[in-house]
Amino acid sequence: MMSLQYSYAVSANPVSHDGNSLHVLFAGESQTEPLHALGPKIYDYYLLHYIESGHGLFRTEQHTFELSEGSCFLIHPGQLVSYVSDDEHPWRYRWTAFIGQEAQQRVEASGFVSNHSVFTSTKKQSIIPMSIASMQEAFYSKKESAHMVSLGHLYLILAEAQDNLSSQTRLTGTKSQVQRTVKQMILYMSTQFAHPVSIEQMCDSLGYNRAYLSRIFKKETGLSPITYLLKLRIDKSRQLLRERPELSIEQIASSVGLTDALYFSRQFRRFCNLSPSAYRNQTGSHL
Question: What's the rounded Cα separation, in Å, for the pair 96 and 157?
Fold first, then answer.
């Protein structure tokens, strides 16, 4: 076995937590000794490790993972865990801890859940070890800006985790991938309806064939993408007709991405059985 020099270094954030919505507590690195072990124990913060080399085991209450170079594991607050380095090829890893009111939301948005706390990076050169090293360097500087620097690197780490965890989901769950794609379509239409966008533009943006997207969208929602987008625009126009009496019908039509006022009026009547003017008069009388 090749002789390894044991090492351990950690640096803490010079800026105190003070209730920040998201806060990195510390960052560190270690070349562990053979059979170096921690736990079973629980932590009151999120603790993320990235393995640069070596082998070892990470255990949660439900699972045991054999992890090596390129693997990353996240310990959740209150989770009983233990981990141990291999006796012949012990881990060299880096780690960072974080906390805050938004921490759980950010973790879940990245794809980390109780059964997805581990992934292996698909990138040839992961940014995670470099980001953790940059956190350490910032903390060593003792500058007030270290807090913002650490948050920037934490977001980069979570972004890479999201890329990896979403690719794992694509490989293991076709249904969840379809649902995620439909959610992306709904998000796209919800944020772009005020512009004269088309379904073709949405398909190009998402990188899928129109026929495929139309098929899965109709199956999941019961509506075609064209009908959903039009309904979204009409629903928003109803709100504007009620709340913005100073706007003309033409201005409202334009505000929901329909530049042809006559087409807008025709579609409005189709969904509401009233013209826009009649709808405004009717709802205005009840205010």
Answer: 10
Provide the residue type at 183 as one letter. K
How far apart CA 285 and CA 153 sit, in angstroms, is 55
Burial 179-209 (b: 16+ CB within 10 A, else e): eebbeebbebbeebbeeebebeebbeeeebe
> Which residues are registered as beta bridge partners of 118?
73
Model pLDDT for residues 9-51, shown as the tens digit of each residue: 999 999 988 777 999 999 999 999 999 999 899 999 999 999 9
* Model pLDDT for residues 178-233, shown as the tens digit of each residue: 888 888 889 889 888 888 888 888 888 888 888 988 999 998 889 999 999 999 99
Specify the DSSP class assigned to residue 287: -
Distances 151 to 157, 227, 269 between C-alpha atoms, Å: 10, 41, 50
Q: What tokens were used for 124?
A: 């040839």
* Type of residue at 178: V
R_g of the chain computed on alpha carbons: 26
Structure tokens at 34: 């053979």
Q: Is 283 exposed, middle or buried (0-12, 13-18, 19+ CB in 10 A)?
A: middle
What are the structural domains of the chain?
A: 7-172 (2.60.120.280), 173-287 (1.10.10.60)
DSSP, res 33: P
User: Which pLDDT band holds residue 251 (cuts at 50, 70, 90)?
Assistant: very high
Integer Cα distance of 227 and 218 in angstroms: 10
